[in-house]
Amino acid sequence: FYQSFLIVRRDSPHARLEDLRGGSFAFTDPHSNTGKLVPTAWLAELGERPETFFRETIYTYSHDNSILAVARGLVDGAAVDGLVWEYYKEKNPELAARTQVIRKSESYGNPPLVASRFLPPGERQALQNLLFTMHQDPQGQKILAELLIERFVPLEEQWYDGIRRLHERLNPGKEAGHGAQDP
Q1: φ, ψ for residue 122, nearest 5 deg
Q2: Are residues 100 and 10 in the same domain?
Q3: Which region holds residue 148: left if phi is over 0, alpha if psi is between -120 and 50, else beta?
Q4: Are residues 97 and 13 in the same domain?
Q5: Which end of the chain has fewer CB atoms within 10 angstroms, the N or the C?
Q6: Are 91 and 117 within one domain?
Q7: What is the pTM (predicted TM-score) of this model?
Q8: Is residue 159 part of a domain?
Q9: Residues 6+ apart with CB under 8 A from 1
């Protein structure tokens, strides 16, 4: 599971989303749950929209770039994938220390790993078996530890209900997408 983290610079006076009114803000990607959908929903709870709440918004197109933009003072705040921020905290503590988390969302199911529909079924099953058992293998454990992942598990559809509810709240009558249609 993962969360959206609202981050600001460590030395920032901003302690709440409301404090960022009139400031600059980095969204990750227009299609990001944690980097766009969640903070937009937070603003909607305040009766606000990004284009009127913030003086300036940018898209960085990666959670890493959003963290860097805040750490370097290029923007006042950003919404990022909490797992990416935690990875930075572990692997690049000097950079993460230049930021602070001022809000966390509820937990959502991680985006799933998917395979092309053109992958032969035997290869798909072998890949699935490898991923679902790698936590039992010393080499697999080492790889997972480097990624700060405990293990892979089969997904459960209800893990995505929270994201669907946010999407519905912001886009009444429009069904949330269920993934790419092409390989």
Answers
A1: -65, -40
A2: yes
A3: left
A4: yes
A5: C
A6: no
A7: 0.85
A8: no
A9: 107, 108, 109, 110, 159
Mark whether 145 and 89 lie in a shared domain.
Answer: no
Same domain for 125 and 99: no
Residue-wise pLDDT for 109-118, tens only, equals 988 889 999 9
Same domain flag for 69 and 128: no
Asked if residue 99 and residue 17 are part of one domain, the reply reads yes
For 9, the enclosing helix (H) or strand (E) is strand 4-9
Structure tokens belonging to residue 71? 């750490």
Q: Which two three-digit tokens encode residue 2?
A: 């993962």
H or E segment to which residue 40 belongs = helix 38-45
Give the whole-angstrom CA distance, residue 19 versus residue 76: 10
- Burial of 158: CB neighbours in 10 Å, binned 0-12, 13-18, 19+: exposed
Looking up tokens 């669907």 gives: 164
Q: Show the CA angle centred on residue 113, arms to residues 3 and 28, nearest 5°.
A: 45
